[in-house]
Structures are given as structure tokens and as C-alpha cells.
Amino acid sequence: MPLKTKPIALILLNMGGPDSLDAIEPFLYNLFSDRELIQLPLGALLQKPFARLISHFRSKKVRESYAYIGGVSPLLEWTQKQAAGIAARLGEAVRPFVVMRYSKPFASEVLAQLKTEGIRQAIILSMYPHYTGATTGSSVNDFKRQAARIYPELDYRLIEEWHDWPGYIDALANRVCEGLDNFHELMRDEVRILFSAHALPQKFIDRGDPYQEQVERTAWEVMQRVGDYRWSIAYQSRSGPVRWMMPGTDDEIIRLGSEGEKSLLMVPVSFVSDHIETLEEIDLQYRLLAEQHGIPHFFRAPSLNDHEDFLDGMAELVRQRCPL
């Protein structure tokens, strides 16, 4: 069989999420057990007992958030659509797969499937555009460990970050412009744009992770395409007694309200799919917070999801970084 016709796996890495309300606690347990993401006190030996305790109590509150969006995370569905769309643009030999870090399908399951089907080549694409060891690093390291254990013969190449990739920037800029279209044309020039990325404990930035610098570069590149609007960056989903990246998204919304802003467009950045942090945290919590602090006109830019321009851009990224 000619080399070019041999099947190649395109494997997208992402965080995962619960597929039912009953799956929330196991998902949180897997997340809190990962010392590359969260280092709970008293060392590795007590990580899992603490993770079980925290996930049990935390799941009660998180359950309400997932119930609001229908009881299931849409992240797997969107990632599967992204994988299928990118693979279709790369040719018939490319087969799409998804690996989640904290929920099914796990790396071990997908690698076993590749081995059974005799797929010996793979391209691994992280769906975190901005690099930190807490997300990209953890997912990539887990995949490497499982590959060495289950399928050491697999020949694979990695794409670990793409924060300034033109196709990604262009697609995100298009979503911002679509978001701006929600505002009446007479107020559009006065809209304030707020990019919101997932927060990290400050210690990850202090140790040298490029995450914050890359988020800032992404936002700057997007605004070069969008035009002359006032904008800023903040970091959401902070919880727990650690020092987090600043400013927090909630604090920034309160600040903008105190300065008299009336029109706010939220732009999810570092997220490439709708999930709990866009559908509930931004669309519900931050919208209500904005209204409470005098910002009546609040919209969110659409997520990238499976927009054609995003899939086109990601397919070209694969072509450039890992020629087939």
C-alpha cells in the first residue's frame, strides 16, 4: 500500500466534561487528582483522598450550573465536530479522534483503538491555543505516558500551541465582529470589548509558563483586525485560596460599570468551544453582574465551535506544522 494512502489519525486533545449530572463528581475527582493541574496540600500521597473530598462537596454547587445548561457538557460534541471538520479538509486518509483528559474518551481507550485498527501514524493537536503546563502540558504528558505504555510503535507528531496562528486569529476576529453586530449601529462605536480567558494560579505564570503573554498577544492580534475599540483582558473561573492571575473578570466588569460603561461585549479567549464557562458563567453570571453594575447592554461574541473559517484555519495549521 502506498504511504500516502495509509490511515493517519488526527487526535484532538481537550479537557473534557461530564456527560450527565451524575458524572459531575467523577469528572471533578479526575480533575482534582491531577497534580500537574492542581497541587493540593500535604503532598502526592494525600492528593487523591483530598480530591475525593473536594469533588464530593464541590459537585453539589457545580450540579446547579450544569443543570442550567441542560445537564451535560457540550465540549465533547463540539470537539468531535471540530476533529471531523479538520480531518475532512486534510484528505480521505485522515481519521478523526478525540481524547479528553478528565472524562471519556481517555487516551488509553483511543490508543488501544488505534492499535487494534492498525493505524500507525498520528497527529496530536491540542485544543488549548495558549500554553501552560496545567492544561496543554498535562494533556500532552498523559498522552505520551499512555502511548509509551499501550502503543509504543505509534509514530506521532504534536502541535502544542497556536496562539498567534493567522487562521485562528482571523476566525476569532470574525466572531468579535459578529458579536458587535448585536449592538445598535448608533451605539456600536461606544462598545467596550472584554476578552476573558480562564484564570491560572499566579504561580504558573511566575514559574515561566507563557500563557498570559500568549493570551495578550492573541487579543492584540485580534484587535488589529477588528478596529479601533477600547478593550481589555481579564481572567475568569477563579476559586479557592490561592493567588490568581489578575484582574478577575468579575472585578473588571464591576470596574467598567463604575466608570460608566453601558455597552459590553465579552469575548471568550483561550476557549475554542462552548462549555460551562461560556454558557453559564459568562451568559448568566457575568450578564447579571453587568446589569447590577449599570451595564444594560451586554452580549457575548460567539464561540469558535465548528465555524467554517476556524476549521479551515486549523486544517492549514496541521498542513504547515505536520505535512502529511
Quaternary: single chain
- What strand order characterises the main sheet? 2-1-3-4
Strand content: 15-25%
Q: Look at the structure and give the CATH class of the domain at 166-300.
A: Alpha Beta
Mean pLDDT: 95
The rounded Rg comes to 20 Å
Q: Report the structural category.
A: alpha/beta
List unreliable stretches of 5+ residues: none
- Number of helical runs? 11
State the end-to-end distance: 16 Å
**CATH architecture title of the domain at 166-300:** 3-Layer(aba) Sandwich
Largest sheet, in brief, is:
4 strands, parallel
At the fold tier of CATH, the topology name of the domain at 166-300 is: Rossmann fold
What series of H and E elements makes up the topology?
Answer: EHHHEHEHEHEHHEHEHEH
Helix content: 40-55%
DSSP E strands, number? 8
Structure commentary:
The strands form 2 sheets. A 4-stranded parallel β-sheet has the order 2-1-3-4, with helices on both faces. Strands 6-5-7-8 form a 4-stranded parallel β-sheet, with helices on both faces. Among the domains are: 21-68, no CATH class; 166-300, Rossmann fold, CATH 3.40.50.1400. The protein has helices at 24-32, 47-68, 75-90, 107-117, 133-150, 166-180, 202-206, 211-226, 249-258, 276-292, 308-321; strands at residues 8-14, 94-100, 121-126, 155-159, 192-198, 230-236, 263-268, 297-300. The protein has 11 helices and 8 strands. Helix 3 (75-90) crosses helix 11 (308-321) and helix 6 (166-180) packs across helix 8 (211-226). The protein is an alpha/beta fold and 324 residues long. Helix 10 links the parallel strand 7 (263-268) and strand 8 (297-300).
